[in-house]
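Predict the 3D structure for this chain.
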Amino acid sequence: LHNARAAARFAGITAKAELTDWRGTVRQKDALVSELRQAKYVDLLPAYNGISYREGPARLTDGGVEVNGTYIPAGKIIIVTGARPAAPAIPGIETVPYLTSSTALNLEEMPQSLLVIGGGYIGAELAQIFARAGVKVTLVCRSRLLPEAEPEIGAALAGYFEDEGVTVVSGIGYRAMRKTENGVSLTVAYGGQETTIGANQVLITTGRTPNIEGLGLTERGIAVSPKGGIVVDDRMRTTEAGIYAAGDVTGRDQFVYMAAYGAKLAARNALNGDSLRYDNSAMPAIVFTDPQVASVGLT
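Done. Predicted structure below.
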């Protein structure tokens, strides 16, 4: 869509693209995700000897795990339960049917306007997706766009967004949220005064919270950080001997490739004497906007 519009700026080129069937686009996306999940995960398990797949809620017990009432003894355990979208503490948010990164791309109908709360990489990516699909997008954030990137990078990307019609409002404080006849409104403190921003839909992208409920961590004496992540050392060990954790459930380095790296490290340490250390000093980070933002290292 965007490239067709961009090409039309040049003399002698006629280009046009329209989003005519959003539901069809969503169905194709769902089919692709399902196909990849089947090929890359589900179908792979039977190919490995010694792997038994059990589906259901799991809870740590003495010497093992309980799944659907069945006790499974285990000398070593790795927790990789991931994380889910988190909502900020905004008065009234519980009364609003907000979207998250998990539900936004499942919408049956495209809204005319969208308010994105959160200026991290997820918010930036989704804001641009919806804007290029023809939605009027406003992105608001407490600090600035891409707060973990260098300030110059966030400012440059904000400029590109403004050129594409995305309104970026940074440096605000959230005061209240409520449902309205046309969708939702957010009251913010900005520039020394309060103002209200409205939209048909609101998308929350202010972070993720680790999935630790029901695991029995407290009973096993496993420490959790103030932000809810399982505390691990540089060998991926929790505070309970024989139990490891990796990925988003630890609350650190929440990128899929870092989760895979940590999980591989945890598995090798669990089986081979804890000899490997987690090292994120050369961690890559990519934001899939246009232009893309990439970095390597700690700063």
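The radius of gyration is 22 Å.
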